[in-house]
Amino acid sequence: EPYRRQRQMCIRDSSLIDNSVFGPMVYYRYNDGISKQYAVSIQNYLNKLTGLEKIIHSEKYYLFMKTKVPAVLIECGFLSNQAERKKLCEEKYQQSIVEAIYQGVRMAKV
Question: Region 9-17: what's the mean pLDDT?
Fold first, then answer.
């Protein structure tokens, strides 16, 4: 299993025309159980941080199709939402997001 310990994570902020959308969201490669386990764990820790109940999303993004290792895309929040943009610019909140992602990866049942 040459890829057992490898994984791909894309971590970013997002923006939408609809400025009412907020909260971290995690996407994983469609039909990939290991990616799904990482996504579930990361989203759970992000939900604990934010108090939200966001769900994970399975996708066939180009980024997922071009790798052979488990892959997730983590949207830390939405810059288009004024209140969230303010939080995303705060160093303390950024550090909390990093810690939630780290714990999610560390505690994933893979």
Answer: 95
- Residue 59 DSSP one-character state: E
| Cα–Cα distance list, 71 to 20, 36, 50, 80 (Å) | 28, 9, 23, 25
CA neighbor of 34 nearest in space, from 62, 67, 72, 2: 72
Could you give the count of Cα atoms lying within 13 Å of 46 in the half-sphere of its Cβ?
26
What integer pLDDT is reported at residue 4 of this predicted model? 58
Element (H, E) at 57: strand 57-59
- Positive/negative CA dihedral, 12, 14, 20, 26: negative
> Residue 84: pLDDT above 80?
yes
Tell me the CA end-to-end span of the chain in Å, nearest whole number: 13
CA distances from 8 to 5, 53, 84, 86, 104 (A): 10, 24, 26, 28, 14
Mean pLDDT score of the chain: 94
Instruction: Indicate if the alpha-carbon torsion angle 108, 105, 7, 40 is positive or negative.
Output: positive
